Predict the structure.
Amino acid sequence: MIAEFEASVCPVMSTYPPPSVMFVRGEGCWLWDRQDRRYLDFLSGIAVCNLGHAHQRVAEAIAQQAQTLCHVSNLYATEPQLHVARMIDRLIGGLSGQVFFANSGAEANECAIKLARKWAGHGRYTVISAGRSFHGRTLATLHATGQPEKHEAFQPLPVGFRHVPWDDIAALERAIDPTTAAVLLEPIQGEGGINVPSSDYLAAVRELCNERGLLLILDEVQTGLARTGRWFAHQHDNVVPDVVTIAKALGNGMPIGACWARSEVAAVFQPGDHATTFGGQPLAASAAHATLEVMQELDLPRLAAHAGQIMTSALLDLDKVISVRGRGLLLGVELADERSANEVVSTAQAAGLLVGIAGPRSLRLAPPLIISHDEIAHGVVILQEVLEV
């Protein structure tokens, strides 16, 4: 534990466990602490730094914008915001949609929930989501999150949310009633354990939403922007959503989120229905603009898909690995180990490798998408040594 973060002296609220390391700089797939020790980052700020740390083009865009125009509020237009909105629409499929900019994934999902209620009209307000899902920490997105253990301390939560088992189309159909406005799903569950649905699940949900007149909202906050080997994870299944939420990787570390919707859905919002002071402001939007440009130049989905195959194959060669689930470079690694995932994460950090948790005996791996084959091999060797201790 870092002494400055002990509860008795730390000025930061204890919403996370006390940190055991303080990072001071990063480059590519590597981070350095205050003792100048370096760590290979297999988590990338929880699937945020898809281009790695301190990417030169993104840093230059931020610096230039900071010296030009940082903020004017959304009462006025700025060029970076318009550029990014057009790029998002094109990457989703060029469906002539519209974008609301926010500061985070939770805020993007809040926008989607409000949009669904406005679109459906009075009396239709229920949003159905899946067990073990994660959609944010605001009161509404917390209730949309299908993890009851996170709910209890904050009851009563807002009404209008219902949960069904993940990857169960029959359960979803039974849950729909006259109050239902939308279905909210992650194409691959992230915080819930890197859970990939059956190959026909999302298509069946899309068909059911069409039949019942419901919006299909896809939470791509963690899976979006090349992480799974496509620009968006739902594109693996050729599904056309009504609303898509994005954040994490959009600014490569600069806080920015976005809620995209088909134009006829977005049109129900009128001035005053929803707003934000900082969402899509020039500094964050410039970072997102540079990030998306570089991602396209590198063909990042292709890199992620190829690197994911290499990493998955290498991990499956380890004796203490039972299975690997996920797509691209969003992977859940199931361990044949008596130790908890928490203990493995701590031991790996001490050995210079940063990984996350995807379950009691599962690791979450989400490295930068620009990771090299040598860096993959190096990280897997560290993990092998950690698991054999």
